Amino acid sequence: MLPPKVSIKAVQELRIISLIASSTETLYRLGLLDKIVGRSHECDYPASVLDLPVCTSPKFEVDGTSYEIDQKVKALVQEGLSVYRVDAEKIKSLNPTHIVTQIQCEVCAVSEKDVVDACSLTLGEEVKIISLKPDCFTDILSDIDTLAIELNIEQRGIDLISEVTQKIESLHSQCETFKLTSKKTPSIACIEWIEPLMAAGNWVPELIEFACGENLFGEAGKHSPWLNMDDLVKSNPDVILVTPCGFDINRTMSEMHLLLDNPQFAGLSCVKNKRVYVADGNQYFNRPGPRVVESMQMIAEMLYPDNYSSGLKGTGFIQI
Predict the structure, then answer these.
(1) Rounded Cα–Cα distance for residues 183 and 210 (Å)
(2) What is the mean pLDDT of residues 145-154?
(3) How far is the CA of 263 from the CAs of 141, 216, 254, 268, 280, in angstroms?
């Protein structure tokens, strides 16, 4: 039964185009999967959304190496161009009531500016554009709330926020016990891009903190910073997590030789101790949605492997 505040008619009339993978997952968890009529080229979870019309595409070949992708993105940005194409005619044909996009990063996903520039002449004023800005963990929760309020299902948003928060807090309490038992706070370097090196920022440093680890690079709420090998070696992390933005495990493994063949990297104690992990960044660490719970669970296992099992080893991440 729907909460009393929800208008059944309003929910039935929703026609949502989601242009961010994380918002598609959030809409799914809010019970609105059947109201999504279009998606971005990156939306792939749950699997059923793959059957939906695709409304965006990248302006460059995404099958290249991390270095090639970096160069192509930088070239577009330097020219003041968008990284993505928005199919305005496709969006118009889907007759949406709402379009969900973001203003957090114009490189990571289709932005509000992309949508407005492409669709300003084809969309009527009755179409609502919902722009999310997930810079940190609190913003992820706020974005859930924003979606729920804008789509007139406020109580569902409150329930989902409560579920995510409770799981994070429960695991944090467990990790505090693990930390006391081990009498050490393990340090971790999270790498979000291989060539050139980049550390993870935004919500990832907070997930590491929640899991009672010492985050060595990147700041909560700030974009991912560039990283050089000398600083990485000097930090001598207990754990290294490699989770490039948009890459799955297999694709990341195809480039791990760039790190493993580097004598400086190979000489790190964590490499010798096999405390290097590769995670599915595309599905977990780069998506500011409800599955940040699973991301934290994986970090907890990497930091305290003798105390905790996420159940995601082999699927969400591997040890090398």
Answers:
(1) 17
(2) 97
(3) 42, 21, 18, 9, 25
